[in-house]
């Protein structure tokens, strides 16, 4: 057994791995949908797309909360 630890090697682009990490850059305006989040530290609204770094653009905090939807589901009926 070797006393040296192996260092982690990043996979190359052509190695057949597919996922959000390949082809996306932080802030990439590729036309994908964005989701609104609220920073847990400074309460700033942060818009993130797939592959973006999960970090507040104002303070750098890494805890973001997803905003609740404001649309009405239409399931409740008022009985008069």
From TrEMBL:
<dbReference type="InterPro" id="IPR029040">
    <property type="entry name" value="RPABC4/Spt4"/>
</dbReference>
<keyword id="KW-0862">Zinc</keyword>
<dbReference type="Pfam" id="PF03604">
    <property type="entry name" value="Zn_ribbon_RPAB4"/>
</dbReference>
<protein>
    <recommendedName>
        <fullName>DNA-directed RNA polymerase I, II, and III subunit RPABC4</fullName>
    </recommendedName>
</protein>
<keyword id="KW-0539">Nucleus</keyword>
<dbReference type="GO" id="GO:0003677">
    <property type="term" value="F:DNA binding"/>
</dbReference>
<dbReference type="InterPro" id="IPR006591">
    <property type="entry name" value="RNAP_P/RPABC4"/>
</dbReference>
<dbReference type="GO" id="GO:0003899">
    <property type="term" value="F:DNA-directed RNA polymerase activity"/>
</dbReference>
<comment type="similarity">
    <text>Belongs to the archaeal Rpo12/eukaryotic RPC10 RNA polymerase subunit family.</text>
</comment>
<dbReference type="GO" id="GO:0008270">
    <property type="term" value="F:zinc ion binding"/>
</dbReference>
<dbReference type="InterPro" id="IPR039747">
    <property type="entry name" value="RPABC4"/>
</dbReference>
<dbReference type="GO" id="GO:0005665">
    <property type="term" value="C:RNA polymerase II, core complex"/>
</dbReference>
<dbReference type="GO" id="GO:0005666">
    <property type="term" value="C:RNA polymerase III complex"/>
</dbReference>
<dbReference type="GO" id="GO:0005736">
    <property type="term" value="C:RNA polymerase I complex"/>
</dbReference>
<dbReference type="GO" id="GO:0006351">
    <property type="term" value="P:DNA-templated transcription"/>
</dbReference>
<keyword id="KW-0479">Metal-binding</keyword>
């Amino acid at each position: 057994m070797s006393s040296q630890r192996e260092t982690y090697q990043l996979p190359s682009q052509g190695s057949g791995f597919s996922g959000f990490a390949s082809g996306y850059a932080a802030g990439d305006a590729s036309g994908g949908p964005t989701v609104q989040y609220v920073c847990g530290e400074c309460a700033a609204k942060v818009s993130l797309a797939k592959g973006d770094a999960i970090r507040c653009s104002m303070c750098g905090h890494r805890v973001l909360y997803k905003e609740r939807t404001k649309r009405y589901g239409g399931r409740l009926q008022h009985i008069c």
